[in-house]
């Protein structure tokens, strides 16, 4: 199977979970990337250099890294390397400069000169996933799976609009997304209605978690951006 074929299956699996399927695939990508770095590439010169230039992983990916298994040693090695680079960059003499100028010089030397490597990898893989989704929009199995979701989050929907080139696929994308968003809005309306004291005894159904799903659709799933 090709990479895109595997991603097709990943998308199908992601559609069975709550939230934006592209966010689910993206989170799986970045977790796999971080696991691979910890288990296979901690001592890779290129990896370490990229992390020094980026001043370590971004906040989201640094903390995601700590959630894995067996990451204590690898994390310690990477963070020590980054901190040593920070100490070296900040080791500059005042040379008679005032405090403000001296602080600005240290700040300039501390600024990252490269993007978080996990962010760069995630963005590349996300584009492949978006292109895979667009390619298979006319596939009956994927279309049926997508119809059961709450749609794509706004960041991933926007990226799909940037990448789509075929008018038929664009129409399928728009039809799927509008139907999903309209359905989610209906669930939110029902949730709001049932918060009225007059209907509080009706109890909540599938709309009960629509507020969480809507948050993921508007702002992307937790940790995915």
Description:
The chain has one domain (3-219). It is elongated and about 70 Å long. The chain has 11 helices and no strands. With 225 residues, the protein is mostly helical.
What share of the residues does DSSP label as strand, in percent?
under 5%
Give the class from helix and strand content and strand pairing. mainly alpha
What is the succession of H and E elements? Answer: HHHHHHHHHHH
Unreliable residue runs: none
* Number of beta-strand segments: 0
Mean pLDDT across the residues is: 90
Q: What Rg do the Cα atoms give?
A: 23 Å
Number of helices, where a helix is a run of at least 4 consecutive DSSP H or I residues: 11
Report the principal-axis shape: elongated
Give the proportion of residues in helices: 55-70%
Distance between the termini: 29 Å
Features:
single chain; 225 residues; mainly alpha; 11 helices; 69% helix; elongated
Question: In a nutshell, what does this entry contain?
Answer:
This protein is an all-alpha fold and 225 residues long. The chain has eleven helices and no strands. The protein has helices at residues 3-15, 21-40, 45-54, 59-65, 72-90, 99-110, 117-135, 140-147, 154-163, 167-194, 210-219.
């Amino acid at each position: 199977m090709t990479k895109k074929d595997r991603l097709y299956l990943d998308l199908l699996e992601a559609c069975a979970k709550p939230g934006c399927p592209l966010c689910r695939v993206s989170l799986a990508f970045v977790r796999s990337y971080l696991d691979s770095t910890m288990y296979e590439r901690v001592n890779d010169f290129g990896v370490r250099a990229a992390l020094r230039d980026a001043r370590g992983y971004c906040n989201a990916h640094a903390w995601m890294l700590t959630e894995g298994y067996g990451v204590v040693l690898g994390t310690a090695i990477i963070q020590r390397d980054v901190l040593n680079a920070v100490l070296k960059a900040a080791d500059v003499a005042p040379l008679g400069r005032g405090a403000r100028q001296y602080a600005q010089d240290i700040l300039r030397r501390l600024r990252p000169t490269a993007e978080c490597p996990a962010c760069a990898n995630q963005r590349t893989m996300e584009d492949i996933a978006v292109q895979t989704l667009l390619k298979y929009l006319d596939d009956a199995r994927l279309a049926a799976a997508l119809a059961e979701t709450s749609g794509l989050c706004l960041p991933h929907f926007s990226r799909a609009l940037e990448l789509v080139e075929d008018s038929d696929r664009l129409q399928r994308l728009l039809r799927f997304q509008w139907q999903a968003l309209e359905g989610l809005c209906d669930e939110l309306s029902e949730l709001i209605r049932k918060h009225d004291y007059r209907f509080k005894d009706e109890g909540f159904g599938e709309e009960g978690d629509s507020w969480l799903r809507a948050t993921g659709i508007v702002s992307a799933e937790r940790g995915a951006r």
